[in-house]
Amino acid sequence: MYAITGITGKVGGALARALLAAKQPVRAVVRDADKGQYWADLGCEVALADMNDAAALGAAFKGATGVFILPPSEFDPAPGFPEARAVITAVSSALQSARPGKVVCLSTIGAQASQSNLLTQRTLMEQALRQLGLPVTFLRPGWFMENALWDVQSARDNGVIHSFLYPLDKSVPMIAAADVGQVAAQLLLESWSGTRIVELEGQHVTPNDIAATFAHVLGRAVHAEAVPRETWGALFTSQGMKDPVPRIQMLDGFNEGWIEFEGGNARLVKGKTSLETVLRMLVQQTA
Question: How far from each other are the two terminal CA atoms of the chain, in whole angstroms?
Answer without folding.
Answer: 39
